[in-house]
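Feature request, filed as a ticket because there's no other form

It would be nice if the structure record came with a short human-readable summary line next to the tokens. Right now we just get the raw output. Example of a typical job, pasted below so the devs can see what we mean:
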Amino acid sequence: MDLILDLSLPELEARLQEWQQPAYRARQVWEWIYKQGATQFAQMTNLPVALRQRLESHFTLTPFEPVAEHLSSDGQTRKLALRLRDGEIIEAVWMRYENRESVCVSTQAGCAMGCAFCATGQGGLRRNLSAGEIVGQVLAFARLLAPQSARVTNVVFMGMGEPFANYDAVWKAASTLMHPAGLGLGARHIVISTVGLIPGIRRFAQERSQVRLAVSLHAPDDALRDRLVPINRAYPIGPLMEAVRDYVNLTGRRVTFEYALIAGVNDHPEQAQALAALLRGLPAHVNLIPLNPVPDSPWRPSPRARVRQFQATLAERGVPCTVRLGRGTDIQAACGQLRARTLQAPA
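Raw output as currently delivered:
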């Protein structure tokens, strides 16, 4: 049975026209899914009964089932472990900020990038997600927020997986989220993060979209980045920064650089100076992220004093920089942690 969330609006229109249905029926279905939060075709009461029954026999609205859910002690972060129809488990996270409701989505079940400090990378890649499986994560939280008269305002492609290793599905999902008949999110409210897949960055630049780009850098030199982010051996910092500069020149967009601060590893003042030199002249913003520790890992987050010193060194050199608020530490909200616990739990 096909997942209806995998279909773009034109694709659904074409399918329904094959069934001798007028094109506007597709927009009615999308209205129920993306505006009304329908979870069953039977809820779509402005469709003919025969059409609802036919949709029910050919499609499913549900890409997964929740198997674990955790709410942080402050009530501002909720994490879901979701079992896909083939049994794979992914994660999605909702975070409430002062002026936004943000959802972090996974793009793959597992990840092949093998970043040394990431729980997801330790388990390897299982498979890519479809566009509908990505969109479904946002819809799951949209339905949870609806009774609070709240709505998802931001989506970040920063969960499990490397988005640019699953480019087609990721871009299709983003397009659905932005479509006025879909969730209608503004492009600037969507961020796609990459560990530095240069072909993906160059392809993304050609979209000429205002969807924002983030690069997970984590080190200012190749020797250290080779250790922390192994894909750096294929796409080292020099060519990566060249691709980023080309992206900026083509799109006029600012780039965010993610930098996880690991105590005694990449948080020295000299490394902050090197990072500032690397970004000189580039319209960039640095997100400093004290490491969310992974069980059984020897690495720990940088102390607050070291974080402040690193931030100050960047600021002194004219690099805009913020320290990301720690979210969901008490529920292991960092990428891959809840999935790992769920997989280890007895059946």
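Something like this underneath would help us a lot:
The domain at 2-60 is CATH 1.10.150.530 (DNA polymerase; domain 1).
The chain has two domains: 2-60, 64-344.
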